[in-house]
Design a protein that fits this description.
This protein is mainly alpha-helical. The protein is built from 13 helices and three strands, in the order αααααααβββαααααα. It has two domains: about 90 residues, Tyrosine recombinase, N-terminal domain (DNA polymerase, domain 1); about 170 residues, Intergrase catalytic core (hpI Integrase, Chain A), CATH 1.10.443.10. A hairpin with a 4-residue loop joins β1 and β2. The longest helix has 21 residues.
Length: about 325
Amino acid sequence: MNPGFGTNSWDLLFDKYLNYIKTERSYSPHTISSYGNDIQQFYSYIEQNYGLNRTPPENISRQILRSFLAQLKRQKYAATSLNRKIACLKSFFKFLFIHKHIHSNPAAGLYSLRTEKKIPFILNYDQIKKAISLIDTTTILGSRDRAILELFYGTGMRLSELANLRMDDIDLVNNVIKVFGKGSKERLVPIGEMAKQAITNYLKKRDDQTQKSKKSDAVLLNQFGNKLSIRGIQRRVARYLQFVSSDGTHPHSLRHAFATHLLDEGADLIAVKELLGHESLSTTQIYTHVSAEKLKKVYKQAHPRAEKEQHKK
């Protein structure tokens, strides 16, 4: 028997798991924190109902997991929250099974709940153009902010991907950026002319800044020459988008706009999926919505039987 089987130290396994999703799976800090809270909540349930010390991981059954989820459902947890906890449990117990801490995986039969896919709020091009025009690019911080908005809208990168962008990831000769997405999956995204110009202008000022402070390989720096935090990026984006929209002030609004505007102009869905770094095509399909009026217009213009034939006089 592998010495890992029957391990009764939940805390030890918890620490091993968090280290695994951080170092080997490269989960975002937000996901790691959320999963940590979810596992702690599960521990509390086991302690209250079965006794944590009396219930090693090997004794956790699918029924126990379902009972835990049923209790959360009675407590009126939203389906989206339940699905995240299901994903966490599946990930955690899969880790325990693969690393031979348990003989079988009790979470293997858990399935996500069906949820309605909400259509994201989409900024239109005029709103984005106006927000960008508000930035004072004569300063280094303004040039940086312009680069941030242009990169979000011009590449569709996630917030965490942009925050972790390094100098070596940018190739202005071939006009591409190397992006490390979820699970450390690497992809190349093209840079448009406007984004390239914004990056070039910022990097010139950034070079002057790093000469006066400590060197950093992060592309986006704060006023002190250190890597700009995720929260810092969110604040900078919201500062400009709030003047053009009360609904879409998060960086993800620009990612939504990137995908939707590409598809509205006829881009291939699979190509957009690759640009966004989605694993599933169904995730990308949320962006395929267009107004009913636009569909009617296209139909009337393209289909030979859309209108009554004009009788020859």
